[in-house]
Write a structure and sequence with these properties.
The chain is mainly α and about 220 residues long. It contains eight helices and no strands. The protein is rod-shaped and about 95 Å long. It starts with a helix and ends in a 7-residue tail after the last helix. Keywords: Membrane, Transmembrane, Transmembrane helix. This is Tetraspanin.
Length: about 220
């Protein structure tokens, strides 16, 4: 029989997996709502990747509940292969975020340039800045902060710093969270391996007992 400590450890990581899936799916949905800075930080592809990750983790959580109630170790072994797949997905997402942050200023220069003039004006008014790298770079005239080129030049405050300050903090928090997801998957994988080993031992003793006409070693 499985020890209470092993069952408790396995259940802990399964609950954490469920929480990770809910968190990923919820944030990828909530962050699609109109929000100037979040909409600038994340593309639709980024948020779709978050949704896929959340659904994958929740599907793995449901599968883990199904296989733990079954006899034998086949289902648990399949679960471990799926957990390896989860870890690959998490690793790809985490690596993408890390690489993106290495060239964050240039990357968001392209993102800022793709925004409509109306959106640029709203961002400039919110952050009290004009243009991206300078007062002539991707600037949009209008609003209260940058009504014209003269005002933009006189302000001498460019959007690259406040934009990347927000995006860097946000992306670093996400990267740390994704790292946490990896720890959960690895923890469940190891706990699952322990459950498999214990079940194999139990099955071996059951076979020995049956050969000895039901006399148990326990």
């Amino acid at each position: 029989m499985l020890s209470k400590k092993l069952i408790g450890a396995w259940a802990f990581f399964v609950i954490c997996l469920m929480a990770a899936g809910i968190l990923s799916l919820t944030l990828s949905i909530v962050w699609r709502q109109p929000n100037l800075m979040l909409n600038l930080t994340f593309s639709g592809v980024n948020l779709t990747a978050g949704s896929v990750l959340g659904i994958t983790l929740l599907a793995t959580f449901v599968l883990s509940l199904l296989v733990i109630t079954q006899r034998g170790t086949l289902g648990l072994k399949i679960l471990n292969w799926i957990l390896l797949g989860n870890s690959i997905v998490i690793l790809v997402i985490g690596t993408y975020i890390w690489i993106f942050t290495l060239h964050e200023r240039n990357n968001y220069h392209a993102v800022f340039g793709q925004q409509s003039n109306e959106t640029k004006i709203l961002i400039q008014d919110m952050l009290k800045c004009c243009g991206y790298f300078d007062a002539t770079d991707e600037v949009a005239f209008g609003g209260t902060t940058c009504p014209n080129q003269a005002a933009a030049t006189a302000l001498n405050n460019f959007c690259v710093t406040p934009i990347t300050k927000f995006t860097d903090l946000t992306l670093n928090n996400i990267f740390s969270t994704v790292d946490g997801f990896m720890a959960i998957v690895i923890g469940l994988f190891l706990a699952n391996m322990c459950v498999i080993k214990k079940r194999q031992e139990f099955e071996r003793f059951e076979k020995i007992d049956s050969k000895r006409e039901g006399h148990s070693f326990f």
